[in-house]
Each structure stands twice: as C-alpha cells, then as structure tokens.
Design goal:
This protein is α/β, with parallel strands linked by helices and about 230 residues long. The protein has a single domain, classed as Rossmann fold (3-Layer(aba) Sandwich), CATH 3.40.50.1240. About 35% of the residues lie in helices and about 15% in strands. It is built from eight helices and seven strands, in the order βαβααβαβαααβαββ. The protein has a seven-stranded mixed sheet with strand order 1-4-3-5-2-6-7. Helix 5 packs across helix 6 and helix 7 crosses helix 8. The N terminus is likely disordered.
C-alpha cells in the first residue's frame, strides 16, 4: 500500500503569498465502504474500497501529468489514503488541514441513509430540499462548512500547482463560493469520488476553471446515487 508522509504545515512561505494564478485541483476522496453501503460518514472513519484505491491511483497519474508539486488533505483516512499515491508520485508530503474536514453530520453519522429517511424524515427532507437551513443535531450547518472553507481558501496561497483532497460537502461549498451562488445551490454541482474541480488561485481569490473533471477515472467512475450525502 502506498503511504505518503503526513505533516502539519507551520505556515505559508512568503513566496506562497506572492503566488499569482497558480492552478489548484480540489478533489473528493475515493469511494469508501460506507459510500457503497449508503451510510453517513461525517467525521467518522471509513476505508477506501478497492475501487476507491484504484481511483486514488488514477488521480495520482492525473496530478503528476498536471505538474502538481504540493498535496494538502483533510485529516480523515479516506482523504489521506486518496492523497498518498499522488504525494508519493510527485515526491511531496501530505499536508494536513483540519479546515478541510467533512461536515459533521452529528447523530446521523454511522447510520444508513434509508434509516435516516424513515426515522428523521423532516430533517432528511429539509437536507435534500433546503440544505442551507439545516442544522444537524450535535453537528454542523453548511454555513459553518462554508466559513471553514473561506478561512482555508483565504490562507492558502500556493507557489506551485497543488492538489487539495477533501469531502463532498467541502467541494460543494467551494463551488458555491467560487460562482457567487447562494447556498440553496449546494446540491446543483456534480461531485464524484476521485474527481476534481480546477481553480486558478491568486491574491484576488479562487477562480473556477472547471467544475468536475473525471476523464482520468475512465471506467472507475462510481455512481453517487446510492451514497449517503
């Protein structure tokens, strides 16, 4: 199994802050066992499936071809395991940033989507139809996830092309933020396991170049229809 070095950066260099128009690839982790089961993950750990591990290898090849030289990840295993092959391929450590964590689903975590739909139907329906106004019991709102993302995006000034590996909800709020849409558009974008959005990053902010790149996955594209998102 490929394992990248994992470090926590102490801060951005002066050179990174002076970067202009650097390409950043914002990827969702590979398919996990809980994705496949339709189980909410949130802050709980779930391993990549063999399919997800193959997606991580495909992502690594794409990032090598794109000239990526820096890799940053959510601390959760499904993200670090997705980031590790790319980091090893481009000879970079995996930097950890807690601001990239998945939304905290609170009492939904570890439970099947169908169970939630049956036992917490009002909140489940609101989450699917009006996500901007849902607070998870003992969890977060997407407003809080957006705040975390904005804090990360404001601080992250890469000097080299970079891969950032995170979760479905974080990619979605990043797309909302980049396009100036309201949080009601949270579900509008397409976010796939092992796929990525492309941004150009400079001191003025993050400019969305492409929303969902999945060509590198080929036959490894996983359906998200049964996933607990």
């Amino acid at each position: 199994m490929l394992v990248g070095r994992v470090v926590r950066p102490e801060g951005s260099s002066e050179l990174a802050h002076k970067a202009r128009g650097v390409r950043v690839y914002l990827a969702r982790h590979g398919e996990t066992t809980w994705n496949l089961a339709g189980r909410y993950q949130g802050r709980l750990e779930s391993a990549l499936t063999p399919f997800g591990a193959a997606q991580a290898l495909a992502l690594a090849g794409a990032m090598d071809s794109a000239g990526v030289r820096r890799v940053v990840s959510s601390p959760l295993l499904r993200c670090t395991a997705t980031a590790a092959p790319a980091a090893e391929r481009v000879h970079a450590p995996v930097e950890i940033d807690d601001r990239l964590l998945e939304i905290a689903h609170g009492t939904w975590e570890g439970r099947l989507r169908d169970e939630i739909a049956a036992n917490d139907p009002l909140r489940y329906r609101a989450w699917r139809e009006d996500p901007a106004h849902v607070r998870f019991e003992n969890g977060e709102t997407i407003v809080q996830v957006l705040e975390r993302w904005r804090e990360f995006a404001a601080a992250f000034r890469p000097a080299v092309p970079s891969l950032v590996v995170t979760h479905d909800a974080v990619v979605r709020v990043a797309l909302v933020a980049a396009t100036g849409r309201e949080l009601d558009a949270f579900w509008n974008g397409r976010v796939e396991n092992g796929a990525y959005a492309v941004f150009d990053v400079d001191e003025s902010g993050w400019t969305l170049v492409e929303e969902n790149v999945a060509a590198h996955l080929g036959a490894l594209r996983a359906s998200t229809e049964g996933q607990a998102l």
